[in-house]
Prior knowledge:
Layout: E1 4-7, E2 10-13, E3 18-24, E4 32-39, E5 46-51, E6 58-60, E7 68-73, E8 78-83, E9 92-100, E10 116-117, E11 121-126
Parallel strand pairs: 2-11
Antiparallel strand pairs: 1-3, 3-8, 4-5, 4-9, 5-6, 7-8, 9-10, 9-11
Amino acid sequence: QVQLVESGGGLVQAGGSLRLSCAASGRTFSSYAMGWFRQGPGKERESVAVINWSGGRAYYSDSLKGRFTISRSNAKNTVYLQMNSLKPEDTAVYYCAALLEARMRRFPPSPNKYDNWGQGTQVTVSS
């Protein structure tokens, strides 16, 4: 198990940028694939981006490609989500999640495979 704590959310104007961080506890962070998800008001949870253990492979939701970038630092036990050109429809609670690579059968993994979730951080984009 790994504990995850997101930070970096807040209120930003449309067109602005934010960088979210997700700090993980434990010494096995590099064993985990990491994902970012979001859930907007009245919407279902959706996958935003996923990164493999080394950072050498990443997946993005088609609608977010080019604006969002996922990265990680295994030395700092942290995964990041850089969000640029933000739009009001990006308003949501953003969650990070972890899945042991050894349990991953495909990339990106199905969202319901993740068994470690953070508490979320609110991102609000004003128009």
